[in-house]
Amino acid sequence: MSPQAVSPLTVNRLSVYLRCLEELQRHGVDRISSTELAERFHLSASQIRKDLAQLGELGIRGVGYQVAHLAARLHSELGLDHQHGVVIVGIGNLGTALASYAGFDSDGFRVVGLFDSDPDKHGRSRGRHTIRPIEELADVVRRDAVSMGVITVPAAAAQRILDLLVAAGVRSILNFAPRQLRTTPGTRVENVDLRIHLEELAFYLRREWGVGRSSQR
Amino acid sequence: MSPQAVSPLTVNRLSVYLRCLEELQRHGVDRISSTELAERFHLSASQIRKDLAQLGELGIRGVGYQVAHLAARLHSELGLDHQHGVVIVGIGNLGTALASYAGFDSDGFRVVGLFDSDPDKHGRSRGRHTIRPIEELADVVRRDAVSMGVITVPAAAAQRILDLLVAAGVRSILNFAPRQLRTTPGTRVENVDLRIHLEELAFYLRREWGVGRSSQR
């Protein structure tokens, strides 16, 4: 599978499959077919087969996938065998929440630094971390070989922080600020838009229960 | 398009298309083809045509889509013509961040109440809201015809809060707690897993730059 060929939505499905397989492992399931996997987790069997076929011959026709083997393969494909150092810039409420978010500090990811421009916050603790001045960002990135940066500053400051992260050598950035950021080739910025989840709920409310159709308030 | 036929990933793409169309409107673009739309926003033209075809005949072959018309249609399909009342339960750092998150309180959504079980927080302000005891949840849901609940409590408390929301009549729930919740038919729970975004970055780091391949630390 060439990098160009894989869309972010496919990658997100690989993440979902990995979670499902890990749950099956916890329940002692050894093998599963794409049809069973789809039924159990409300997925599409044909989509599963198509996505996993891109990784090579992983299933055996009529037998299915070996759960442990497939989980290990997805874990590796997703780059989770590597420990990625993560810095979070902007330690307001969202940055603080992410600093202690279990998924950001386990199995493949490790938060190694929190940064804020507010001098009143410098030296304060958030869990096992101390908030540092932005001026120390480049040193921490170099020292800990940080590969990922998370931007949780206000929109107006986001581009400046992105530029600082890129200058320090961070190539993968998760941006929670509601602003489209300019980036350079060789850098990947993913914008997280939490509103999309509410829109999904609104879609099904309208489709399934008619909420929002006609003149209903 | 029957509700059963539409996957959450398709709905998420409709949200993405709407954002793109709104940006085109701001730039004064009247018409656009699926190919141009795909190129401009790094999407798949065939996927766009397939997704939009499910909504009916929206484009004209050789002419493309009328931007304003398509945006209005998607806005309506996504249930955004309706104003959805949203309550947030669990006003720690994440709940506080979401209470002032622009996307949760505009164009189709309105935060109408913040709730927490900690008596020390009751009566405190978060933006234009005052934090209330959980005991008042059912009253607010009824009075303001709340259709959506956001769960930002610790994992151990999440199921209890879900049950309270459902008992109060909330049918659409966004769960940020890292726990799989039991629900009843007629209720939709979407689990938000922010780690999936880091995994996406890790995938491309490995694919495009080899980070995490072989023995690289």
What oligomeric state best describes the polypeptide chains here?
homodimer
**Shape type of chain A:** globular
Biggest interface, chains and residues, is: A-B, 68 and 67 residues
Could you describe the largest sheet of chain A, including whether it forms a barrel? Answer: 7 strands, mixed
Describe the structure.
2 copies of one chain form a homodimer. With 217 residues, chain A is an alpha/beta fold. In chain A, helix 1 runs antiparallel to helix 4 (67-77). In chain A, strand 6 and strand 7 form a beta hairpin. Chain A has a 7-stranded mixed beta sheet, with helices on both faces. In chain A, strands 1-3-2 form a 3-stranded antiparallel beta sheet. The mean pLDDT of chain A is 90. The first copy, chain A, has 8 helices and 10 strands. The first copy, chain A, is globular. The longest helix of chain A has 19 residues, at 8-26. Chains A and B meet through helix 1, helix 5, strand 9 and helix 8 of A and helix 1, helix 5, strand 9 and helix 8 of B.
